[in-house]
Amino acid sequence: MRSNLFTKKHLLVYLLGFLPVLFLMQNCDKTPVQFTQLNLQEGEVDNTSTSLNDIPSKQALVYGSSPEDRQFLEDRITNFKAPGMDQIFGNWRRLAGSQIYPTANDIVMTPGTEYCFTTLDPLTGFWELTIDPSTGNQINPSTHGECANDPAFSASSWSFFKNPDRLHTSTNAGVFNGFISGIPYENYTNEVTLTSDKTDDDVISLIIAMLVDEQGVVHSLSASRSQGGFVAHAQGMDFGWGIIYRQNNEIINVFGARSVGGTNENKVSGDKKGWNGRKTRVKVNRAGNIIKAEASNWSMESTNLSYDPESLIELDLSDNSLGLEIFKKPAYYGYGVHSQSGAQFQDIVFSMPFQNEFIYDLQGDLVYERNEKGVYNVLSGQSAFEALGYPSRIGNVETQKEFHLESFRKYSRIK
Ligand SMILES: [Ca+2]
User: Fold this and answer.
1) What pLDDT, in 10s, does the model give residues 270-329?
2) How far is the CA of 157 from the centre of ligand 1 (A)?
3) How many whole angstroms separate alpha carbon 216 and alpha carbon 302?
4) Residue pair 358/367 in contact by the 8 Å Cβ criterion
């Protein structure tokens, strides 16, 4: 047990310290900003934890007092740009079926599959060949069934390449896998070019929203392109474009399925060569409960990827007939692939409206809000401590720093 954990005594001290704040909060009608996501919640008060791992955690753009963190904060304030693919590759959580790994370093090999984990070739992004111990045969882990069906293996199969910056996966994975943001959003626009240089015909997606329910089930909604392969066959996405709702790895529903340039399904349609270097650009816009997704036709050229107006799929999360109620709140976005070796994401353009982002300076107990010009301003009278709630283990997925609320208004760095 760590000595700096909250105890019941600390809780009492804390609550006494918070009484004036609670009083003020009841009289704060003139406060211009409502921290609806981050206000102190009764359910967050935890007076029984004996382990740091039991403390409720949250993700926010928080910055501590180390020189490194001061620089991160300065960079954020003066030079905001959306997370680049190097950040996504290095810092974002990885999703594989029902598994979520906080970072690549947290991926644990499934016993018996160790032989799959050779080395990702730094030039091609594909796993080096190995010997299957059960048969003695040389196999390619990227396509070998036992390897490709293992969530830990597919989550480990990603590379980041430059010129152009892109995410690449080598594996013909049996589970939907990719990257999810550390911070939830409900207002944003994300545009990405999807491609694969392999002739397989399966699914490459922008994850529109991802949340985990109280039972630990991963719910995801993804704008998906395919060349008509097996994932599509199962749920009527044969046309090559639609929004897929999954629970863990199971496809629950497909919305708006239609053709945007047809498909090139192996041995079946088009030139029968799958992706084979074809590109498509996909745009997702989320404005609260309204989701809009568009796609371009296929093209071999990045310069020829204009959105097809007929591709527009619009969903209203407040329409209960869709069964998507779980997403009616800020959710994580990201990038996902199902059974498509060589899939790549490039030319990401992500933007969000000003209402959507706050950053928290734990050293100065300050809250910054991003305005309509993308400039961060300190919110006068707002306290980072109050806005973030109590007690919390708070991580910043962009910097990979994590903090623990040690005592009233005092955070300690965990890592
Ligand atoms: Ca496949």
Assistant:
1) 999 999 999 999 999 999 999 999 999 999 999 889 999 999 999 999 999 999 999 999
2) 15
3) 39
4) yes
What SS3 state is found at 247? strand
Same domain for 157 and 303?
Answer: yes
What is residue 395's predicted lDDT score, i.e. its pLDDT?
A: 83
Which runs of consecutive H residues, i.e. helices, occur in 97-159? 145-148, 151-155
Residue at 1 is within a domain: no
Q: What order of strands is seen across the sheet that includes strand 62-63?
A: 62-63, 358-361, 366-370, 376-378
38-42, 109-113, 117-121, 150-154, range with the lowest pLDDT? 38-42
Rounded to the nearest angstrom, the distance between the alpha carbon of 236 and the centre of ligand 1 is 16
- 127 pLDDT above the threshold of 60: yes
pLDDT of 391 reads: 55
Q: How many angstroms does the Cα of residue 340 sit away from the middle of ligand 1? A: 5
Q: Where are the alpha helices (DSSP H) in 229-321?
A: 230-235
> Do 32 and 180 belong to one domain?
no
Burial 205-224 (b: 16+ CB within 10 A, else e): bbbbbbbeeeeeebbbbbbb
Which residues have CB less than 5 Å away from ligand 1 (the ion)?
172, 200, 202, 339
- Spacing, Cα 231 to ligand 1 middle (Å): 8
Could you tell me the residue range of the domain that residue 409 belongs to?
Answer: 8-80+358-413
Within this chain, do residues 315 and 402 fall inside the same structural domain, yes or no? no
Q: At 85, list the tokens.
A: 């693919």
Residues 46 and 188 in one domain: no
Per-residue pLDDT at 354: 56
**Token pair of 161, please?**
């390449």
In the chain, the number of structural domains is 2
Residues 6+ apart with CB under 8 A from 299: 278, 279, 280, 305
For residue 198, how far is its CA from the centre of ligand 1 (angstroms)? 10
| Residue 162 Cα to ligand 1 middle (Å) | 25
Record the pTM. Answer: 0.74
Q: Which domain CATH number covers 145?
A: 2.60.120.560
DSSP state of 146: H
Residue with tokens 């004996």: 50
